[in-house]
Amino acid sequence: MTADAPITNVGADDRLDGPFEPNVFARDCGSRAAFEAITGRWTSLVLIALVEGPHRFGELRRRVDGVSEKMLSQSLHALEREGLLTRTDHGTLPPRVDYALTPLGVEVAGRLRALADVLQDTVPLFEAARAEYDGQ
Amino acid sequence: MTADAPITNVGADDRLDGPFEPNVFARDCGSRAAFEAITGRWTSLVLIALVEGPHRFGELRRRVDGVSEKMLSQSLHALEREGLLTRTDHGTLPPRVDYALTPLGVEVAGRLRALADVLQDTVPLFEAARAEYDGQ
DNA sequence: CAGGATCCGGAGCGATACTG
DNA sequence: CAGTATCGCTCCGGATCCTG
Predict the structure, then answer these.
(1) What pLDDT is recorded for position B93?
(2) Closest residue in chain B to residue A30, using alpha carbons only
(3) Between A17 and A73, where is the model more confident?
(4) What's the domain range around A108?
(5) Residue A34 falls within a domain, yes or no?
(6) Which chain B residues are closer than 8 Å to A11 by Cβ?
(7) Same domain for A5 and A44?
(8) B10-48 pLDDT, tens per residue?
(9) The pLDDT of residue B40
(10) CB-CB: which of B22, B66, B123 is closest to A30?
(11) Is A75 an 8 Å CB contact of chain B?
């Protein structure tokens, strides 16, 4: 991205009715930041896992196959920052911390869950597509 | 991930009715691969852009604010490989190549678009959540 | 059990230059 | 216009150790 290139995709792009129409395509839009947080490699899976209800740290680590403690912790912080989940420290010993979706988190995670369901139901199509593409 | 840790999250996890129930949480599941391809930083935005109809390379580059040519090209190949979009080279001069969603791509992209709409409509909530989190 | 701190290799990614 | 090739750097992310 050269500095002299005029960027006109920041504010109102396709619909210029409002003064500042939020636009995921725009780099500086708040929705884009939220979108990138949600579509993170691990964050999305964490959100989906929480659709079934609150989870503890260890539960999530076991549920999301392959995630390291570091990345799980990092993902949870990111999602908490975006207001998609809440962290509840019971302050007991041994420690117990629960992660649960906020109302907005429920809305978002539900859609991710639905998306994942579509993918799970069409696994054969993906296998075929990959084989086709790799074959030639 | 230690090697001796028994991983039992590969196949049937929460529902063990079928022989091999696809599971996004499982590392080796085809749906997980598709999910990671879809939720890539740029791939998701490309898919959303294509909901409005076929686009040329340059159009996409201008539409998806901040993407480099390299990453756009790479993202398009990945999505084509997953069978979510088709590439049509008209073979003319100057060259013209169109990218369009497959039926499966329409299904997936539509859901991403809906998700993005939610985020765009709740931008203020994210701003507030971030301010709250950063403040303390 | 919940996670912070640190090290470090490799993947991700942008910038630039070049081709048909 | 539609890409590919190459360089170089950032930072993702896993492994490991440590604490309350």
Answers:
(1) 87
(2) B123
(3) A73
(4) 39-134
(5) no
(6) none
(7) no
(8) 433 444 445 578 999 999 899 999 999 998 899 999 999
(9) 87
(10) B123
(11) no
Nearest residue to B61 (alpha-carbon basis) of B78, B47, B79, B73: B73
* pLDDT for A110 beyond 90: yes
A78 touches strand D (CB under 7 A): no
Tokens 């390379």 locate to B57
Cβ-contact B64, A29 below 8 angstroms: no
Which of residues 30 through 59 in chain A touch B, CB cutoff 8 A?
Answer: 30-31, 33-36, 38-41, 44-45, 48-49
Mean pLDDT across the stretch A48-68? 96
Tell me if A76 sits within 8 A of A59, measured CB to CB: no
For residue range B60-91, list pLDDT tens digits in order.
999 999 999 999 999 999 999 999 999 999 99
pTM for this model (two decimals): 0.87
Residue type, A45: L
Q: Are A13 and A59 members of one domain?
A: no
Listed as own residue / partner, the contacts of A29-33 with beta carbons closer than 8 Å and 24 or more positions apart are A29/B120, A29/B123, A30/B123, A30/B126, A30/B127, A31/B116, A31/B119, A31/B120, A31/B123, A31/B126, A33/B126
Residue of B nearest to A44 (CA): B39
SS3 B16: coil
- Give the pLDDT of residue A5: 37
Q: What is the CATH number of the domain that holds B58?
A: 1.10.10.10
Give CA angle at B84 (A112, A45), nearest 5°. Answer: 25
CA atom of B97 to C1′ atom of C14, Å? 24
B15 compared with A106, residue with greater pLDDT:
A106
Give the per-residue pLDDT at B82: 95
Residues A123 and A72 in one domain: yes
Instruction: Report residues 1-30 of B contacting strand D, contact meaning Cβ closer than 7 Å.
Output: 1-2
How many domains does chain A contain in total?
2
Point out the residue among B38, B83, B130 whose CB comes nearest to the CB of A82: B130
